[in-house]
Design a protein that fits this description.
By secondary structure, the protein is α/β, with parallel strands linked by helices. Helix content is about 35%, strand content about 30%. It has one domain: STAS domain (Transcription Regulator spoIIAA, 2-Layer Sandwich). Helix 2 links the parallel strand 3 and strand 4. It comes from Streptomyces spiralis.
Length: about 120
């Protein structure tokens, strides 16, 4: 599968849908797309990682840097990571959990939940 980032808007939210492997080779592309969105003055961002089937430490680094960038702009960052068991759950969700950084992110199961203004209960 080819790495792909597509963008969409949902009201005040910018949505980047990411598909493929998020690794050392592809993570700079996602980093640039995030910076482009912020440079356009859009500080509420949803990263849909539902179709990311592999994520290494450089991908995690991009997510952490995105969080820091969005927070510095008083924006909001939400991740879409489908729930599921160890076999069918999101790879990115498992990687973030294993590294102990999942708690840093607001995680939602789908786009509708992510752009809803009601906070997700824990």
């Amino acid at each position: 599968m080819v790495f792909k980032v597509t963008s969409d808007g949902q009201g005040e939210w910018s949505v980047l849908q990411v598909a493929g492997e998020l690794d050392l080779v592809t993570s700079p592309m996602l980093r640039q797309r995030i910076h482009d969105v912020v440079a356009e003055g859009r500080h509420d961002l949803v990263l849909d990682l539902s179709d990311v089937f592999f994520c290494d430490s450089s991908g995690v680094g991009v997510l952490i840097a995105a969080r820091r960038l969005i927070r510095s702009c008083q924006g909001r960052l939400r991740l879409i990571l489908p729930a599921g068991g160890a076999v069918d759950g999101s790879h990115v969700n498992r990687v973030l959990g294993a590294l102990g950084v999942r708690r840093l992110f607001d995680v939602y199961p789908d786009l509708a939940a992510a752009v809803d203004e009601e906070p997700l209960s824990a």
